[in-house]
């Protein structure tokens, strides 16, 4: 990875060497919360992302170049965001021991989508908020709430970002939001109260924690259960073994893809057991390979199992 310091426009950049075949858009696309996510933008071959490290904002522009990806950054957190660029691109994703050959469907998905890596988003707090917003509601509604709240209470992304790109608010802003602002965005009391409780311990939800330790800390927050934990650790830390137990449609996807039959949570865990340590990797591959092919088993929105 080569680095260039601040230039005449106040930006800095790194060029990250990447293996041939890296699927940049699909790798990063798992972090994006819908096509209208105001913290992401696509501009030709470029991908733009507005993020935070603690209270400080940063804008990233990721551009494929020969042999890798050039990552430009602006904002107070630019240096930290650049340090995290290899992880964001999935280059810290270690697939050692992943036995795709154990099932022909998984092996085929791996051959087809081998350029997709598990990205480590780094912004734990935003992953917490989006996961909580997606509890027990249809995904499209949760994503619309995220968009409204970020556009209204976030800040324009620093640097020469495309119009409309915003940095999500820091924890203190989420904690201070009045009830009517939550309701105007379509967020009920249970989810808004959970976000506010999480905001009081946001300082302890760090991106340098191991997935198991972050999970332990998240589970101390009332309203956060196993589904939400798996969503956060998989997106923010690139956890290769996270499993979203309690999802409304994921067990059916895994069951249908691997056996041709529906499954419940227990059945899904049994089917994924041969890939212990890489279960999220299998889930991602199956979602990519079978997107839009799942038989209609009811609502496609995601829900979280209530913990208390």
Automatic annotation (TrEMBL):
Could you list this entry's UniProt keywords, alphabetically sorted.
DNA damage, DNA repair
In Swiss-Prot or TrEMBL terms, this protein is called 3-methyladenine DNA glycosylase
Question: Organism source for this protein?
Answer: Cellulomonas phragmiteti
